[in-house]
Amino acid sequence: MSIEVIKPGLATSIQDAGRPGYYHLGIPQSGALDQYALRLANLLVGNDEGAAVVECTLLAPELKFLANAIIAVTGAELDVRIAGTVVERNVSHEVLAGQTVSFGFMRSGARAYLAVAGGIDVPVVLGSRSTYALGAFGGYHGRKLQAGDVLPVGTASASAAAGRAAPTELVAKTPKDVELRVLPGLYFHRLEPVSAKTFFEDTWSVAPEADRIGYRYRGGTALKFKQRQQPFGAGSDPSNIVDAGYPYGSIQVPGGSEPIILHRDAVSGGGYAMVGTVISADMDRIAQMQPNHKARFLSVDMNEALAARAVYRNRLQRLRIALTP
Amino acid sequence: MTRLPPSRYSFGGDEHLFVEISEEMSLPAFFKAMALTQELSKRNLPGITEICPANAAYLVRFDPDVMQPDTLVDALKDIENSVGDADMELDTRIIEVPVLYNDPWTNETQMRFRERHQDPSSTDLEYAARANHYAEVNEFIAAHSDSPWFVSMVGFVAGLPFLFQMVERDRQIEVPKYLRPRTDTPKLTVGHGGCFSCVYSVRGAGGYQMFGVTPAPIFDPEQRLAYLKELMVFFRPGDIVKWRPITREEYDRDIEAVEAGTFDLRIRPVRFSLKRFLADPTRYNAGLIEHLCGEGAQA
Question: Is the whole model's pTM more than 0.90, yes or no?
Fold first, then answer.
């Protein structure tokens, strides 16, 4: 069983639950940016929830199925067509050999996930099938998809069937204005008090430079770092530190102008002060933000972060129960 | 040894704990990061998924559903209290890395990005030599390659080592980064920015001054060479590196060996003692290099 790429889309890649364990060597976890949508897509087609899927970014691909398959599309809101007929998202469907799956533009959200029963069966590298493009490995030959690529598909489970639908209340929606909850910390104390305030008061919007490595935001007041005699080994700008590890979700502000939130293909470290970290429960939201999408940063403490995490896990657990036959 | 004040602990969201050992870079700070993270690995605490030492800090990723955040802080502080003042020793390797300094490829790249440089009329090597008060580029290359370096961090991108020279601070090479980063750097460029050297593991953007290239692959997902069979990334934090200047003829020969799959690096296991190093860095380094190059006793 395999799938041929007719049109590749803008930045389509194979992703799964990710590749933890090698960050200390500069290899990030990668994996689907919207992990909830990944799990939903896989559960709909009877896969292990972390199986490899096709991650479509902004402009989705066109794919020809070379054998019968069960598929589901989750994540961004867009038209999904099987052989030209629009089908529902968040529901599993049968695709027949020779049929093409194509997509409309993304009305809301930035990433759609196409799961195929059996999973995309590219080789496992360091424990994962996810593409890490900067390192040129994982996924399909270590890169985003191109026209003519042929994706191998694994064996579907016995439970794979068309017509399985996600309960509506368990499907995530992307609001017009996104709130991203941030735990201040790391080098937050290096900000001038006025910047520590405006960072959370201002409305920011996604800049064109937003990808799997990181999301850049602009439109808010430029942040000022306290002047100081820079420590030995740190750069000369007050936003510089001695190069250190960057947490996933951490927010750095090079030169004070535009905050960058690191995502799952993060650079693992560098010399820019981080002012806080987006909590784990909100990382999927970032994945669904298109350029110009507006965001506010909301300051939370650890207890609130853990409560949000529990809500996220609880919802995922309900999803598993609802979709496991 | 130099005593460091207690580390600063700060959470990076609900899954990371960031530990800043020192605001400024120093060998004792790096060494403490290595010692603490090694001890942390040994303790095998539940819920810890990544341990990343980096220069004068380290980062831990954890699962707060398994390990309470405050419990983790207590555990790390306990490690700091028990390990912090021990005579820090490190079982590691010393590696000789050939470098073609002043090579044609980085020189060509420099010329394409001259308007982003502090001194467009000099080469990166000439600028760095002057900034560090060396009269000749050759003297600067000797200063860069005569004393060994610690790999103080691996990261930014896959397999990229940051290196900190094992010399007294007044001999430490310091060079500002480019004014604006380049959009291109040849693969395997040996670069330097601030007090750190690095080897660019992949071609791409970069802001460090470019001194040369090494023929030795250090990151290869195909794992074609013997020393990359275990893992696609060669360098690990704590490795000691000695650069060896080579000629163009040697470089070409090495590249042929790389392509034939027969290229190898000189690698020796070594136990490093920070206390003995700090007592007499020059003499200690001489012993390290003798250990690397000859049959001599362990440093």
Answer: yes
Residues on chain B touching A180 (C-beta within 8 angstroms): none
β-bridge partners, B101: B212
pLDDT one-digit tens code per residue, A146-161: 999 999 999 999 999 9
Three-state SS for B126? helix
Q: Are B156 and B168 in contact (CB under 8 A)?
A: no
CB–CB contact A26 B69 (8 Å): no
The CATH number of domain B92-293, selected from 3.30.70.100, 2.60.120.10, 2.40.100.10, 3.20.20.30: 2.40.100.10
Contact B12, B18 (CB under 8 A): yes
Quote ipTM for the complex.
0.96
- The tens digit of pLDDT for each residue in A276-312 reads 999 999 999 999 999 999 999 999 999 999 999 999 9
- Which residues in chain A have their CB less than 8 angstroms from residue B204's CB? 134
User: In CATH, which of 2.40.100.10, 3.30.1330.10, 3.30.365.10, 3.40.50.720 is domain A177-313?
Assistant: 2.40.100.10
- CA nearest to B194, candidates A272, A197, A82: A272
In the prediction, which pLDDT does B297 show? Answer: 44
Domain with CATH 3.30.1360.40 in chain B: 8-86
Q: A248 φ, ψ to 5°?
A: -60, 135
Structure tokens that stand for A302 in this block? 């650890």
Taking only residues 178 to 217 of chain A, the set having a beta carbon closer than 8 angstroms to any beta carbon of chain B reads 183, 185-186
The Cα–Cα gap between B298 and B161 comes to 25
Task: Indicate the Cα dihedral angle A307, A308, A312, A313, nearest 10°.
Answer: -30
Closest alpha carbon within chain A to B221: A137
**Phi–psi pair at A286, nearest 5 degrees:** -60, -40
* Chain B: residue whose CA lies nearest to A308: B14
CATH 3.30.1360.40 is the classification of domain B8-86:
yes
Q: Best of B9, B66, B156 to disrupt the A interface by mutation (most A CBs within 10 Å)? A: B156
Residue A266: DSSP 8-state? -
Residues 6 or more apart whose CB falls under 8 angstroms from that of A261 comprise A180, A214, A215, A217, A249, A250, A251, A278, A286
Angle, to 10 degrees, between the axis of helix B137-146 and the axis of helix B124-131? 80
Contact B246, B165 (CB under 8 A): no
DSSP, collapsed to helix, strand or coil, labels residue A20 as coil
**Domain spans of chain A, in order of start:** 2-172, 177-313
Task: Report helix, strand or coil for B108.
Answer: helix
Looking at chain B, list the stretches that DSSP marks H as alpha helix, in order from N- to C-terminal side: 27-43, 69-83, 104-112, 124-131, 137-146, 248-260, 274-279, 281-293
Angle between helix axes A302-323 and A35-44 (nearest 10 degrees) is: 10
Whether A274 has its CB under 8 Å from any CB of chain B: the answer is yes
Q: What are the residue ranges of CATH 2.40.100.10 in chain B?
A: 92-293
